[in-house]
Structure formats: structure tokens, C-alpha cells
Write a structure and sequence with these properties.
Radius of gyration of chain A: 14 Å
Number of strands of chain A: 6
Largest interface: A-B, 29 and 27 residues
Distance between the termini of chain A: 29 Å
Oligomer: heterodimer
Structural class of chain A: alpha+beta
Strand content of chain A: 25-35%
Largest sheet of chain B: 7 strands, mixed
Largest sheet of chain A: 4 strands, antiparallel
Order of helices and strands of chain A: EEEHEEEH
Distance between the termini of chain B: 95 Å
Helix content of chain B: 10-25%
Radius of gyration of chain B: 37 Å
Strand order of the largest sheet of chain A: 3-4-5-6
Number of strands of chain B: 51
Shape of chain A: globular
């Protein structure tokens, strides 16, 4: 029963208010993409032990989507941030670098 | 024989008798008794039969760890199975019955299993009942079901009610012994908000029983004083009869409060489930004594040493007259001392250690109790209960040195901290060689959202086994928790207790150490699931080396007590058998709840009407008053049909269809989802969501649209209307409104967040009524108003705004039945008035409300698909012949790329066709068309299946649609569909549209 702060309405949400939305920062591959690109976009999701970036929706609340950076093992939350971005903001990456030196996630370091 | 002593019993009031029945027999206890102590007082030692061998079993423990003494409590609407007598407080009129015996507790046929026990080892069921396969269902399972199992489930609706309670707090302390009280006091003194929970009805835990001295006074007095000061603190909440059930992520925890179990009162909730968010959780859950593994250790009368003295000190009852104490540590001596002090006979203390030299052994010796170091029990003998103990050298192989008469054995195998709540959320354990137990490793605590530990342990739960150590540890835990929760801890000192100087215990996993098979096969580890030392050894031999596998193979620790007594002993035996160190073997996973909690408390208020909210249309009252037969669709309840004057539902459906096809019918379509999509980019957005082109739809026109997910599969359909230049109204399926709204929001917020579009769900703002049939226009025109409903002014697939009568209305010329049809949306507040007006105006035409089944039949006659019937999450629009609704001009839409994958363009995909039985019968729903041969799994090959099937009153025969391999290319071919009874029905592949294929009826 996680608690995540919804950056849209500012409240700390109990997990019962939230709907999970899988991996964050996916790049959509539509018509014209190769079979491999399309397969990876739909199915090859990250499932790491440790640092992860996820999409969540404050479904039983303001209804808005947001991103969360957290550790899937310790459940530590490094921060939540806007869904309208292509990558985690620098301040969250700084927090992760401080707490998990040498972290990596997809191409991110 | 067990009985009540002349005096003593700190928790009972002898002046207040309490009557109860056990297996129908009237018995008496007193106020303050548990059912366990009252049974002992009544001379009842035999309380149940074991799970597998139906061995006679008695009470072993005095608390939540009790494995044997489970009973059914109450009857009929208050019946509850598997209640532990040790935690059941006695009240006047309590009724209990023992479990798992047939025909009676004293004489049980299943006892034959015990004689056969060498043929019923671990994994017996897996090995034996494999073959022949048919025997399982008809022979093995019924017999096993009758003779196995614990309590039976209640057959009646629960008469009690339950509630949930939500709370946030700084610190929760679980356990109200001296550790919990000390921790709560330290945290409370620092100013933290504290919730202190105790699972029993009493504070202080074991300390008062064990005669502990704290800060210069007896524990009982200290507990009372500490409680008083806690009660006076406004920031401290105290709850007895409340068990900490589970610890979860980020400081969430559940506690279960038993409000009326000790004094039934139907006017208040029976149980209350506390849903708690805490900054810090302290588990002051104490420790549980371990059993010793000697032959016959499951005979009634063999008990935990601590439990024996609990019964003497707390309730003034004894399980027997002559108690042999067997121990591997100093604590067991406390029981001998308690018994002797109460004037009872303790023939001998068997100490498995080679020396008995500590303070407690000396005290026992002073009292004249015989002590024999280096000795153990070879076996306990007796029929149905303990009669004698065979004594042997602990280091030997069980040759009896001496036989001692006894009717009770008090055993102490050392103490294991209760680590369950620590472990629920990932707290790790370390092995203590000194105490031969696993204890929490404070370096690897469960961590919260901030990455910091949020669970601390206090006292015996930390592995502290002396009173002074417990108090110091608990004080520190209370201070740390307060500090971690943001309070400045006061510097005060921990309470103190005189040094006890216990001598080291000695791990004893087999008694005697070299016990032969014959003895080990009578040494029980898990009483409730009937698992013996030899079962675990067998599992190890057969390769179940992982502790989790051995657990499942033997069922060790899988009963309702979750192995509270058996866990460590089982692990130790497994480790021995594998020749591995105990810490290497590790523990099984501890899962919540700590002890079982009632289903009622989990459900709380969510039962009956409150289980799930029901969405109601403005016409719902009318439906209910007019005999509607309802079916659930999403959160709605839609009329399935309106049977009148005793007609069958089938007859009602036929009548509704005929009336609609021949004159006029009325449909409450308010449940259809209605989403307004608005903004400069709305057209572009809808072009991405639908397979069709929606941006080119003219204002005032409607278009049927299909929605797919990124995987290409059909997800929803409905009519889209363009309201004005930048506004579209999208209809969704009845169950789909919230889902599709969410789908749109997801893409708008997370992918195309720069597009200027708003989506609003206006489903419940409108009442939508289908006026359907050849007389539809006449009925509506009778009502007058400003709308021109003529064919010329309002052609098929157009809509217009205006008023019908005096009610503002939007009329859509759309049809899901093939008839002349208007769907009229009016403000929800005027929906019922409009419905009533239509009924009145249509009376002369015999206007007939129809339900969802008539709707389904009429759409199937027209070959219209239904999401959820023709689609199942693996069907693409191309499978359904809907290529006309897929825009060829668009570069992209959700699902387009997926539909280009080779599997999606495979010519062998199953495609939509109509199916016409040769005999006119109705095909069974979901039936498969069988093909010759078998697939690679040996299953019969299939080439199609039925997706929709009905009796059509219009054609007076069965009609159906289905998905068939290359279906549209095989018109006229015959397929064989298998029926459930094994027979086969033949059907011809036909066009799915079987009624008015040219649309002449709807286009008038």
C-alpha cells in the first residue's frame, strides 16, 4: 500500500486511490516502425530490481496522470513528477544519483 | 485429571459462575476464564482430533499459537468454525463443539488412519491418488473430504455486522506486555501520538505470571501504574482485544478488534478492522515457546511449559495432578516452581543439558524437586492421554532408564521471537546461535517511502529473553520511534528489573539426540497438520531441499496456526537432514494476517446493498414498478425483458420484438456512454482514437465508429455525432463509458499533451430513449414541439436539436434494430416525464417497452456486432467485416500498426459469418465447430465458434453469428457444432444479415 504524492493536486495518495500505468517515458511506435521496434514498444517493458520510473493515475482523485521514480525493492520513493515530460527532471535524477550511486535505467545514467 | 485448584487465578472471579456447553454437555466456568481454562476446570482434556490421523488431541498452549484446540462456536447465524479455545473468552451461554471427528470425539472411525500412518507419509496424496484419473473425482476426493479438514463453513447468513476504522498516527505499538507498555510510554513521553494494541483482554503479557520484578515492585503493580499514566496521556490510545494483523508497505497496517466476542451484543459491530497509517511501527509481540520433539509429544496432557503455568497462575486450573517438566533452558523451571508452589506434584524435571546450575534450578532444588540433568523423554505413553513418561539419556538412542507415572508433561524447547509482523513487509532475520532462534536484524528493517526503517522491535520480539533486557530494549525502541516520527525524545531512563543470569540453553531438535526411526515417526512437529519429524526427513530425501518446497510437500506450517509452534523445529530437522546450517536453510515466508481474521471484518460495511453502488437511470423506478427482469451491465441494472401477466421471459422477449417490428417499441438507452470531446484539436484527436475519419464528419451528422487499442484489437464502438465546429459527442457501450473516458484522458495527458482537447463524461446528464418501429415517427409527432422529424428534414444518420412537446431534446436518426428509429436525448431531470409522455402518446399504437434481450435479437437479425459478444479482446475490425469503417486515408490511428502484423493479416483468421442450423434449432452459445484431427496438444481441432445465438421471432427459427476460419469465403458450407450433451448440430455458413438486408425499413 504505497503512498505517492500526486504532483497535480498535491496530496499524498494512498495506493487505493491510484491506478498503475506501467513503465514511464515509452516512445510510441506507430505505422512505419519496424517489427522489432513495435514489439519492444508494446511488450518489452522494463522490470528492474531497484530504480524504476512508472506512470500512475490518480484515478480515484483528480484523475490526472503523473510519473513516479522509486525503488522496486525497498519501495523508497525518489520523487513524483509531471506526466508531460520525456524524461525525469534533473532534481529527481540528482536524488537517485545520491541515494543509488551508479544507477542505470534503459539508456539513462 | 485436570481440575480447578482451591485457590489462585489472578484473572478469574470465582464468585461469578458462567455456564457453557461443549459438544452439547453442560459445563461451568467462572468470570475471567478462557474457554480453555474452563474446559480444564471441567475435566475436559481431550478437545479435538488431528487433521490427518485423527489422533486425540488436547490443549497445548495458552494463547494465539494454539494448534489443536479449535472448535466451532455458536450456531446457525452466529456459527464460527476454527475458533481457538485459548483465545476465546468465556461468557454465559457459550456453545462450542469440537471438530474433525466422526461419529464422536471419543470414538472416531478416522483413528484407523493413525494405525495406517506408516502408509500415509508426506506427499501421500500426491503419490497415491494420481491414478486412475477418474477415481479422483468419484472415489478419492469424496472420502478425503469427509474425513479431512477442520471446521465446516457456516451455512447461514452472518447475523452480526462489522466495521472498518481508518486512522493515521505517529507510532503504533503492537503488543501490550511490559515491552509494549514501556515502548508506548517512551514514545508518548516524547509527545508522539501513540496507538498501543494488545490482542488479549489483559495488559502485561507474561511478566505477572513469571513473577517479574520491575523498578522494585511486582510486575502486576508496575503494569497497573504504567497503564494509569498512559491512560492519562491525551496523545496515547489504548486498545485491548485488538490484534496487529499485518504490516504493509509505507507504514500501512491492519489490526483486528474483537468488540463483542466476549459479550455478544448484536446492536454493535462484532469486529472492527483498523486500517492504520503509521509513521513508525513497534512490534512488541513477545516470543513463543517451542515444543520438544519426542515420541508421543502430541498426546493430550503434553503442553508447553509456559502454558501450564499460565493456567495455574492466571486461572487457577491445572491440566493434571503429576507434571513432568522437560526443558533445555532455565525458563522451564519456572513452571515446576509454579506448580510446586500451588501444592502440586512435580515428580521430576528432565533437563536436556548436562548441568543444571542456574538460579532457577537451584530454587527448584531448594523446593525439593528432583532434577535430572542430561536426561530427556524417550516416549510418552498412554491411551488417549498421558499416563507415563519413559526417561532416557538425551545423548542416547532412547533406551529407557526409568518410567515415571504422570498425567501431564510440561515441555520447553526454548523461545522464538514473534517475528511475523516484522517480516510481513520485508524485515530480515538473523540466526542467534545462543538462543537457537531467528530474531529481527535491525540493520535490515522494512523501509518506507523515505528509505528509512519504519518498523522497530521491542523486548522479546527483538530476541531479548531477560526482563531487564526487554525493558531496556523497549525503552530505546519507544524513544527511537518518537525521534523517527519527528519528536524529541526525553532522556528518561528505562525501567529496570533484577539481573536473572540465566544459564545458556541448549538446542534440542531431537529427543533423544539419536532417536531411532520408530521414535522419530511418533515425534510431532506440526500438530495441526499432523507433520512428524520423519515426514520432513522424507521430504529432504526426496529432494525437496528448499524450505518452501519442503513446507508445501509436507504441509508443515500451512495450517491455520501457520506454524507458530512448528516452524523452527521443522527448519532444524530439515537442516539436519540436509546437513546444512539452519541459517542457510532459512525460513518460509511470513504472511499476514498474524492469526486468522474473520471474512466479515474484511468485508466491513460492504455487504448487501452497500457492496457495490448501483447506477440508476431516471426511468429505473418505472422499470421496477413494471415487472422488469434485470441484468447487470457495468454498474447499471438494465431491464432484460418486461414479462407481463405471468408470461415467461422468452414469451416476453418475443412479444417485445413483434411489437417493435410491427408497430413501436421503447428502449431506455440512457446507460449508453456519452463523452463530449471539444477543442481546436478534437477532430485530429478523434481521428487517432477511431479507425474511421471523424474530422470530416459534417455538423449535424452521425457516424458509427470503432475504437481499437494499440494492440489492434477492438475495444469499443458507438455512434459519434458532430455537435459544432469543434465539438463531438461520442457514444460508448453501456459498460464502456468510464473506461473509454479514461482511455481518452490517458492519451491526451501522456502522449499528445500539447493537443488542445477537453473530454467530459456527460453520460448521466441525459436520459436517452429509443423510439423504435414503423410507428415511431407518428408517436413523436403526436407530442408536437419544434423538431421537424420528417425523412427530408431529419434523414438517417442525422440529428437535430429542438423541443419535443415542451421538453428540450436532441433527436438522433440512428438504428440498432433495423427499424425506423429515433434516439432522443433529453435532460436527465425530464427523462421520466418524457418516458411517460411517450407511453401515453403511443398507447393507441400499443407502444411496448423492450429490454436488452429484444435489443440483442433485433441487432443480431441485422448482423450488427456487439462488443463482448463478437469481440473478446483478440478480435480486430477486419475479422468482423468492418473494413468499411476503417479509413484508408489516415496515416495513423491507435491499432493501425498492430493490424499490419503478419498474424493480423493472415488469411486463415477466423472471420464473422452468419450461421443457419439445418434443423432451425438455436445453436448453443459459445459452441465450437469441430474439425477432423487433433492439434499438437492432442486436442480436437476447431475451425470456428458461435459468438451470438438467438431464437428469432421475426424468422421463427434460430439465428446465429460466429467466427469461422476464412468464413466469408465459405458461404453455403456446412459446419458441425458440438453440443454439451455430446451430440452434434449442423449449420450452414450464411450472410450475417438475415433481416432487411437493403435497409429499407430503417430508411423511411
Amino acid at each position: 500500500m504505497l503512498i505517492l504524492n500526486c504532483p497535480n493536486c498535491g496530496i499524498n495518495c494512498d495506493e487505493t486511490e491510484l491506478a498503475p500505468g506501467c513503465e514511464a517515458h515509452l516512445k510510441r511506435h506507430g505505422p512505419g516502425s519496424s517489427e522489432d521496434e513495435f514489439r519492444d514498444y508494446l511488450f518489452a517493458k522494463e522490470n528492474p530490481r531497484g530504480v524504476h520510473f512508472e506512470r500512475w493515475r490518480h484515478a480515484n482523485g483528480c484523475g490526472k496522470w503523473f510519473h513516479a521514480a522509486r525503488d522496486t525493492v525497498t519501495l523508497e520513493v525518489f520523487g513524483t513528477y509531471s506526466a508531460q515530460t520525456f524524461e525525469p527532471p534533473q532534481e529527481i535524477r540528482d536524488v537517485i544519483a545520491r541515494k543509488r550511486p551508479g544507477w542505470a535505467w534503459r539508456e539513462m545514467r | 485429571m485436570s481440575h480447578r485448584l482451591e485457590s489462585g487465578g489472578r484473572l478469574i472471579d470465582r464468585s461469578q459462575p458462567r455456564g457453557f456447553t461443549f459438544n452439547g454437555k453442560s459445563m461451568r466456568g467462572v468470570k475471567g476464564d478462557t474457554l480453555a481454562s474452563a474446559l480444564f476446570a471441567s475435566g475436559q482434556v481431550l478437545v479435538g482430533r488431528s487433521f490427518k490421523y485423527h489422533r486425540p488431541r488436547g490443549i497445548v498452549a495458552s494463547g494465539a499459537e494454539e494448534p489443536n484446540a479449535l472448535v466451532g462456536l455458536g450456531k446457525d447465524r452466529t456459527f464460527e468454525p476454527n475458533a481457538r479455545v485459548t483465545t476465546t473468552e468465556l461468557f454465559d451461554g457459550l456453545t462450542a463443539e469440537s471438530q474433525n471427528h466422526w461419529p464422536s470425539l471419543e470414538f472416531d472411525i478416522g483413528e484407523i488412519n493413525a494405525k495406517l500412518s506408516r502408509f500415509l507419509p508426506a506427499g501421500f496424496y500426491y503419490k497415491m491418488f494420481m491414478w486412475p484419473r477418474a477415481f479422483w473425482k468419484h472415489l478419492y476426493e469424496p472420502i478425503i473430504r469427509m474425513s479431512a479438514g477442520l471446521g465446516r463453513p457456516p451455512r447461514h447468513r452472518d447475523a452480526d455486522h462489522y466495521e472498518h476504522f481508518n486512522i493515521t498516527t505517529d507510532v503504533v505499538v503492537i503488543g501490550g506486555g511490559i515491552a509494549g507498555l514501556t515502548a508506548a510510554k517512551a514514545a508518548g513521553d516524547a509527545g508522539a501520538e501513540v496507538l498501543l494494541l494488545e490482542q488479549t483482554a489483559h495488559w502485561g503479557g507474561r511478566a505477572p505470571v513469571d513473577g517479574v520484578e520491575i523498578d522494585g515492585q511486582q510486575a502486576e503493580g508496575w503494569v497497573e501504574e504504567t497503564l494509569k499514566s498512559l491512560e492519562a496521556m491525551p496523545n496515547v490510545t489504548l486498545r485491548t482485544r485488538t490484534m496487529g494483523a499485518g504490516v504493509y508497505d509505507h507504514g500501512y497496517m491492519l489490526a483486528s478488534e474483537r468488540i463483542t466476542d466476549h459479550a455478544p451484543d448484536a446492536s454493535v459491530p462484532r469486529h472492527r478492522l483498523w486500517r492504520i497509517r503509521a509513521r513508525q511501527i513497534i512490534t512488541a509481540t513477545g516470543a513463543i515457546e517451542r515444543t520438544l520433539s519426542f515420541a508421543g509429544n502430541d498426546l493430550p496432557g503434553v503442553m508447553l511449559a509456559s502454558a501450564v503455568r499460565d493456567y495455574v497462575v492466571n486461572f487457577g486450573v491445572v491440566p493434571g495432578e503429576k507434571t513432568v517438566v522437560v526443558t533445555n533452558n532455565d525458563d522451564g523451571y519456572r513452571t515446576a516452581i509454579s506448580l510446586k508452589s500451588a501444592g502440586l506434584n512435580v515428580p521430576v524435571i528432565l533437563d536436556a543439558r548436562d548441568e543444571a546450575i542456574g538460579e532457577l534450578p537451584e530454587k527448584a532444588l531448594e523446593m525439593g524437586i528432583r532434577i535430572t540433568p542430561g536426561r530427556g523423554i524417550a516416549k510418552v505413553v498412554g491411551k488417549g492421554r498421558v499416563q507415563a513418561v519413559h526417561i532416557c539419556n538425551q545423548s542416547g538412542d532412547g533406551a529407557a532408564i526409568e518410567e515415571v507415572e504422570a498425567d501431564c508433561v510440561a515441555m520447553s524447547g526454548g523461545w522464538s521471537p514473534v517475528v511475523h509482523l516484522w517480516s510481513h513487509c520485508g524485515g530480515k532475520l538473523i540466526w542467534s546461535e545462543e538462543n537457537a532462534h531467528f530474531r529481527p536484524d535491525p540493520e535490515r528493517a522494512p523501509t518506507g517511502a523515505d528509505g528509512q526503517a519504519f518498523v522497530l522491535t521491542a523486548g522479546a520480539a527483538s530476541g531479548e529473553l531477560t526482563s531487564d533486557g526487554v525493558l531496556a530494549d523497549a525503552h530505546k525502541a519507544g524513544q527511537s520511534a518518537a525521534r523517527n516520527a519527528g519528536y524529541e525524545a526525553k532522556t528518561g531512563n528505562a525501567p529496570t528489573s533484577p539481573d536473572e543470569n540465566p544459564k545458556p540453553m541448549q538446542a534440542v531438535w531431537n529427543m533423544p539426540a539419536n532417536a531411532p526411526y520408530e521414535l522419530r515417526s511418533k515425534s510431532w512437529l506440526d500438530y495441526q497438520n499432523d507433520v512428524k519429524v520423519t515426514d520432513v526427513e522424507l521430504a529432504a530425501r526426496e529432494g525437496f531441499e528448499s524450505v518452501e518446497h519442503a513446507k508445501r510437500y509436507t504441509t508443515l506450517g500451512m495450517a491455520t496456526d501457520q506454524g507458530k509452534l512448528s516452524n523452527i523445529n521443522g527448519l532444524a530437522v530439515l537442516s539436519q537432514a540436509l546437513g546444512a546450517e539452519i541459517p542457510k536453510t532459512g525460513t518460509t515466508t511470513f504472511r499476514p494476517p498474524y492469526t486468522p481474521i474473520t471474512m466479515g471484518s474484511i468485508a466491513g460495511e460492504a455487504r448487501g446493498e452497500l457492496f457495490q453502488p448501483i447506477q440508476r437511470t431516471p426511468i429505473q423506478d418505472w422499470h421496477e414498478a413494471n415487472g422488469a427482469n434485470f441484468e447487470p451491465v457495468g454498474h447499471w441494472r438494465r431491464p432484460y425483458a418486461f414479462p407481463q401477466n405471468g408470461e415467461t421471459i422468452d414469451d416476453a422477449v418475443t412479444r417485445e420484438i413483434n411489437a417493435t417490428r410491427n408497430s413501436v417499441g421503447l428502449l431506455d438507452a440512457s446507460t449508453l456512454g456519452k463523452l463530449v470531446v471539444k477543442g481546436p484539436d478534437a477532430g485530429r484527436f478523434l481521428d487517432m482514437l477511431y479507425t474511421n475519419m471523424m474530422s470530416t464528419l459534417k455538423v449535424g451528422k452521425c457516424r458509427y465508429g470503432l475504437m481499437c487499442n494499440e494492440n489492434g484489437f477492438l475495444s469499443d464502438d458507438g455512434v459519434v455525432a458532430r455537435i459544432d465546429d469543434d465539438t463531438w459527442l461520442c457514444h460508448t457501450t453501456t459498460g464502456g463509458a468510464d473506461r473509454i473516458h479514461g482511455h481518452m484522458e490517458e492519451w491526451l495527458q501522456t502522449e499528445w499533451w500539447d493537443w488542445k482537447v477537453f473530454v467530459a463524461n456527460v453520460t448521466e446528464q441525459y436520459t436517452q430513449i429509443g423510439v423504435v418501429g414503423p410507428k415511431a415517427r407518428e408517436v413523436l409527432e403526436k407530442l408536437g414541439g419544434t423538431l421537424d422529424l420528417s425523412r427530408e428534414a431529419l434523414p438517417f444518420m442525422a440529428f437535430a436539436d429542438g423541443a419535443i412537446g415542451s421538453i428540450p431534446a436532441r433527436a438522433f436518426r440512428i438504428s440498432f434494430s433495423g427499424e425506423l428509429s429515433f434516439e432522443i436525448a433529453v435532460p436527465a431531470s425530464q427523462g421520466r416525464a418524457f418516458w411517460d409522455a411517450l407511453l401515453e402518446a403511443g398507447a393507441e399504437f400499443g407502444i411496448t417497452p423492450y429490454g436488452t434481450e429484444a435489443l440483442h435479437v433485433m441487432r443480431a437479425e441485422k448482423g450488427f456486432i456487439m462488443i463482448g459478444d463478437e469481440t473478446d479482446g483478440t478480435v480486430i475490425p477486419q475479422d468482423l467485416g468492418l473494413n468499411w469503417a476503417i479509413s484508408k486515408k489516415k496515416d495513423d490511428y491507435l491499432g493501425k500498426r498492430a493490424q499490419e502484423r503478419s498474424h493480423m493479416t493472415d488469411p486463415l483468421r477466423w472471420k464473422l459469418v452468419g450461421l443457419e442450423t439445418l434443423d432451425g434449432s438455436v445453436l448453443p452459445d459459445g459452441a465450437y465447430a469441430a474439425e477432423a484431427g487433433v492439434n499438437e496438444n492432442g486436442q480436437r481441432r476447431t475451425e470456428g465458434r458461435v459468438t451470438s445465438t438467438y431464437y428469432s421471432p421475426t424468422l421463427d427459427r434460430g439465428i446465429a453469428m460466429g467466427l469461422v476460419v476464412r468464413g466469408p469465403d465459405r458461404m453455403g458450407e456446412e459446419l458441425e457444432f458440438a453440443k454439451i450433451d455430446g451430440s452434434v448440430v449442423k449449420a450452414k455458413i450464411v450472410d450475417p444479415v438475415v433481416f432487411d438486408p437493403d435497409g429499407e425499413k430503417q430508411n423511411v
